[in-house]
Amino acid sequence: MDVRIWTYIIVGLTFALYIGIAIWSRAGSTKEFYVAGGGVSPLANGMATAADWMSAASFLSMAGLISFMGYDGTVYLMGWTGGYVLLALLLAPYLRKFGKFTVPDFIGDRYYSNSARTVAVICALLVSFTYIAGQMRGVGVVFSRFLEVDINTGVIIGMVIVLFYAVLGGMKGITYTQVAQYCVLIFAFMVPAIYISIIMTGVPIPQLGMGSTLADGSGTYLLDKLDGLNAELGFAEYTSGTKKIQDVFAITCALMVGTAGLPHVIVRFFTVKRVKDARMSAGLALVFIAILYTTAPAISVFARTNLIETVSNKDYSSVPEWFKNWETTGLLTFTDKNADGKIQYVADPEVNELKIDNDIIVLANPEIGGLPNWVIALVAAGGLAAALSTAAGLLLVISSSVSHDLLKKIFIPTISEKGELISARLAATVAVVIAGYFGINPPGFVAAVVALAFGLAAASFFPAIILGIFYKRMNKEGAVAGMVVGITLMLYYMVKYKLGWLDDTLPPSSDWWFGISPEGFGTVAMLANFAVSLVISAFTPAPPEDVQRIVEDIRLPMGAGEAVSH
């Protein structure tokens, strides 16, 4: 069977599974809709958290980034991995013990202020919409190639699927759907990696294969060969870095602390019964995440080597079928500048004739490596699982922020549970339409868009959450001022240097403040947030005594039983 038929079969079966789970586990109350009833097991929650965390950026785009950036691309690997550890150890158990459904709910109660709650809701919406745009684009990329529709149509199909099970099942449906999606995405990621590792190096473990000698008996190490191929084409050596050290640090830090402020990941720790279950599920999720994250660099090396050897300086008339297939999507383009019929793939932009979208590397890797059609279709299903799992979690954050934190807590405190549930579903419906628009018109490739979302989370939520847990003198005036300054600064930098909306053109990287890229500027905005928060809180009244007692209580280890809602 050809790839298209295999894709229809495998993707169809996985979609049927997701929808079936959503119908089986549909939410009947706001508690089930927001936190799955609070009774999810640590194992299921660990798998669901891993799926929620490993978005299209992790599955599709991270390996693509490393493949083209080499050593420089590892900032995403370090930042996202380190960020999850930070979240699991430093924040998740304390937030779980506080006993609130959402991050704005925590901030509103901890800072005893509806103003703080409203600012937190606005920040949550900005972060979530930026993040979800990357997921919807990932869905579009997969559909455009394997179901042979254009990216826009692919985004719309993805919108319909995710809306169905997110709106029907809420967090309860999403949790068990994400367990299935984790199984699909990790199997889809590992099978081709193991396959290609054996073909290229004879080693069945991709992480070891990346650093092994080639299977051709030459004794050449794979990474040495790739360094040589890159050098021949004028690219920097794969194992060397070209980014400025301050930008590497800033991006890594922004991704780390941005992780710790991501509302759709934090809310997963409210779905278990006890604080110790939150800790256990965080540890299990880290193991599940590590399987993919340690494999991504290996896939990057395999794909980059095979790509160069397959297309560089080859006659266009004899390129393999996969090349022509990806050309039809517009994500890979060949322009014969010197009319010699050969593909010139080199570093010099004036001479280079081949443009490759970072986001296709993982999807194209099995085709480039000549793997069976069912493996190619399996990777497509895995990419969709990664994108849809995270999109669903983000939709829930958006809907709960509107229905629970705005309507229930501020504007209509007397709203019935049924009314709140209806408003949550309506909010999710509106949110998916807006997300679809940004998926069709994204401000960059998947990982870049997602990195901006992490910057926004770092700039807004992280200081408010960390100070709210560990500094009882922190008050509402400081928190609100810090969040406003942090998010405003990050938005300005993002709009100016990533989107070019202020000057109609993108300023050159030489104009970046402190030599830091937009993906790393969340670190600077976060530091500004911390400074403003601490200074303002020092010159304004301390929080009420009962709030200070709550802050002390949530850090006591003896409270590791049922969480109490304050």
TrEMBL record:
Q: What PROSITE patterns does this protein's entry cite?
A: NA_SOLUT_SYMP_3
The family line of this record is:
Belongs to the sodium:solute symporter (SSF) (TC 2.A.21) family.
Membrane-crossing residue ranges in chain numbering: 6-24, 77-95, 116-134, 154-171, 183-205, 248-270, 282-303, 374-398, 419-440, 446-471, 478-495, 515-539
Q: Which domain of life is it from?
A: Bacteria
Protein name stated in the entry = Cation acetate symporter
Gene Ontology molecular-function annotations: transmembrane transporter activity
Keyword Transcription regulation found: no
The entry's keywords:
Membrane, Transmembrane, Transmembrane helix, Transport
Instruction: List the membrane topology term(s).
Output: Multi-pass membrane protein
| InterPro entries given in the database record | Na/Glc_symporter_sf, Na/solute_symporter, Na/solute_symporter_VC_2705, Sodium:Solute_Symporter
Species of origin:
Arundinibacter roseus
Instruction: State the GO CC annotations.
Output: plasma membrane
* Cellular compartments annotated: Membrane
